[in-house]
Amino acid sequence: MPEDISAIAVTADENMKKAIGHLETELTKIRAGKANPQMIDGIMVDYYGSSMSISQVANVSVMDARTLSIQPWEKNMLQPIEKAILAANIGITPQNDGNLVRLFLPPLTEERRKDLVKRCHTEAEQSRIAIRNIRRDAIEQIKKMEKNGLSKDVAKDAENNVQQITDKYISTIEKHLTAKEKEIMSV
User: Fold this and answer.
1) Which of 15, 47, 51 has the alpha carbon at shortest distance from 133?
2) Cβ contact 72:62 at 8 Å
3) Of 24, 29, 31, 128, which alpha carbon lies 20 to 30 A from 18's?
4) pTM value?
5) Helix crossing, 152-185 with 110-147: angle to 10°?
6) How far apart are CA 153 and CA 132, in angstroms?
7) 37-104 maps to which CATH number?
8) 2-29+109-185 maps to which CATH number?
9) DSSP 8-class letter at 30
């Protein structure tokens, strides 16, 4: 039976890693005043009837600290890319010059920085909830095994192990949040 318990811990660890990966992805989408091609990763554009991300239909590059350029591989994609960026409501108005779309990032105001930090806290809280749910599921599995004959000592050790894994990932969330908050609030 102990290998079943270690499998529960390994599964919980893998799922928590995925939750952290999701948090990292979401935090990179939140702009911190610097141009970053990952800001537009989630924006989908209509490409001949199918929905694709902008990076799949265009070359996205950083021109300078506050400017992103989007060079579509086909000129007729300029308008759909521009519409997709406007529809995504990321707070940036695209500028189309006939060859490429430019995104000029305005300097962040103090109020906007605070809103972005709130958004970071929301994402972090979502990740904490996901990790706690994974912990709860793992502990429920251990308790079921305990009802089916697993000794209380082994069950308690397994629960402690799951809790240690949980604590490790919760502290990782805090580190990511602190780093992103510092990045956003630095002028």
Assistant:
1) 15
2) no
3) 31
4) 0.71
5) 170
6) 23
7) 3.30.1360.40
8) 1.10.132.20
9) S
What is the CA angle 32-34-37, rounded to 5? 100
Q: Give me the tens of pLDDT residue by residue for the chain, a chain 187 residues long.
A: 467 888 989 999 999 999 999 998 888 777 666 777 777 777 888 888 888 888 888 888 888 878 888 888 888 888 888 888 888 777 778 888 888 888 888 777 888 888 888 989 999 999 999 999 999 999 999 999 889 888 888 889 999 999 999 999 999 999 999 998 888 887 6
CA 129 to chain centre: 14
Spell out the domain ranges in the chain. Answer: 2-29+109-185, 37-104
Amino acid at 143: K
Query: Token pair for residue 166?
Result: 């949980």
Q: 74 near 45, Cβ under 8 Å?
A: no
